[in-house]
Sequence to fold (472 residues):
Amino acid sequence: MNLPDLKEAKIRTKKEIKIIRDDYKVPHDMKTIGKNKKYYLKTYGCQMNVHDSENIKAILEDMSFSEAMEMEDADIILLNTCAIRENAHNKMFGFLGRVKHLKHSKPDVICGICGCMAQEESVVDDIKSKYRWVDIVFGTHNIHKLPEILKESIDNKKQEIEVYSIEGDVYEGIPIKRDSKYKAWVNIQYGCDKFCTYCIVPYTRGKQRSRMPVDIINEVKDLVNNGYKEVTLLGQNVNAYGKDLNINYTMSDLLEETAKTGIERIRFVTSHPWDFDDKMIDIIAKYDNIMPYIHLPLQSGSDRILKLMGRRYTKEKYLELFNKIKKNIPNCSITTDIIVAFPGETIEDFNDTLDVVNTCKFDSAFTFIYSPRIGTPAAKMKNDLTIEEKNDRLYKLNEVVNKYANEANQKYMGKIVKVLIEAPSEKSGKLMGYTDTMKLVNVEASEEYLGKIVDVEITDVKTWSLDGKLID
Ligand code: SAH
Ligand code: SF4
Ligand code: F3S
Fold:
């Protein structure tokens, strides 16, 4: 049994990262464990987790499990968890309550917890003491070990915990069951070395490890051959891609090589402003298949708070980059993440954030109240703000953010845009997809258009979506 340890996880060694190409195999005696059995997988958190869930599904199906649409029909229930804020924790424990209830009537149901919370020492301690009925726990570095972990739990009928606090290697060749036939997540980098003082990710996901360019490009070429229209290159700060490989190959090289595969649409998340260089801007502007959409987290508009957050840029540097992108990439939409009520944030600091939002007029923004995460430096900083003050700042920020999101969408009224039609919309009779600039559009169209990039005229505009009709 390996247990997570935050102190150990903080240590970044100079040890070379191994690329492991043939570690994943479902041993013969585990191939039929899931015969006539179903799994239910609940995913929380970011695209990283969504993508990991695609691997987990494929592994379970390799073991002959099939997917259940309802938790009640499943023989194994897995929760792929997120640790980013307190409410992510609460959601997971809330769901666990429902699983416990189900276990009363179906005692043989296996319950497993994986993802970022599984990498947290305090969570694993809780599971070991208060949630003895949880059968398996495995971390973000152990996904390929799922068949063995599951088998041991079934054979031994005891809690199995397999979580490494070491930094993890790069595993190639883990099978995948993609959620979409048209757009795909492609990991380019695991982990994060930025250590923003509020953030748990460098501990739950380990040291930054870039995949080799050849593995990424081959994956994209395969996707093109299989009819995929869009790839999103994934990492916690993709602009730092390659820096750990020592092969003199950067994110702009990767973007260019990906563009040359001929895939119709390329996106990438997330960009840390710190590593965004001019060459990247040139490459994005040069290739039509790199989408004019950048998620560029601001976090705060106050230099004092940015420093306390360890973000390593100033308000001025952020604005300089923002303006450079807008100037060089025509029609580029830019979205952001903002945290309010970071420890010590004064009303002046908060006003600085509002000031940047009023200057940039972001296409949209994810906004959060700061949430202390155990083991991070910011969790030890003093925070005198009351809950009312925190909520008030979030409310005020959202008002401004929503105003600009609406304004940005209004500019699309009557325009003709290209949309990749990807799924039926929740609204009956319509399909949904995104513009190159990542605007959600509900389109009146028949299902034959699924997976196609079509011209759409925008007929109505809302704050968070657009309505449109097909242009023949
Ligand atoms: N790697 C990305 C962010 C990943 S986490 C980046 O650096 O931009 C997504 C967002 O969650 C962050 O941008 C931040 O705004 C928010 N976040 C992270 N830790 C948080 C915390 N402790 N409290 C509140 N929000 C947090
Ligand atoms: Fe967290 Fe900062 Fe890394 Fe983003 S860059 S994952 S906010 S530590
Ligand atoms: Fe959450 Fe882990 Fe992503 S903490 S935001 S699922 S990397």
Remarks:
- Residues 248 and 259 are 19 Å apart (CA to CA).
- Residues 192, 194-196, 199, 201-202, 236-237, 272 surround iron/sulfur cluster (ligand 2) (CB under 6 Å).
- The mean pLDDT is 94.
- The first strand starts at residue 19 and ends at 20.
